[in-house]
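seq:
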Amino acid sequence: MRIAEIAVVQKNSTMRATLLLISIMILSCVKETNVDNLSSQNLLIGIWEFSNANFDSEGVYNPNFSIETYIKNDELKDKYCIVFGEDYVFKSYDHGWCGTPPLSFSLTEGKYKQVDNLLTFDIEHYMFYDRKMEIIELTKEKLVVKVFY
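struct:
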């Protein structure tokens, strides 16, 4: 083999190795992002019982949003709850607009979409028309959202 042929073979090997390395790096980044989204999605799925609401981080009234906290629950109780299910099913369990006892609870079902930390809803329910939620905190036991009206 001549020196020129050896140089071409070495150059092709180096290019293949570089291309392989770049491909592995790109694929590993894509997989990592998908795993993060799936784990976030899995934490969201379940029954969330309303705990409290503040108008903003300092407790001051803001007509555009509120901060709401929910606690994970194993079952629906006669308290306001929201449910995030498999296949993006969303349910709202509440007593309607009249808060005068005795309260009668009902379950309304629709769909939700999640893009990063933003949730949007497709449900025929007076509390969720054009409503968006931004996930501020999500753990196995606690969900804190910024609700935009």
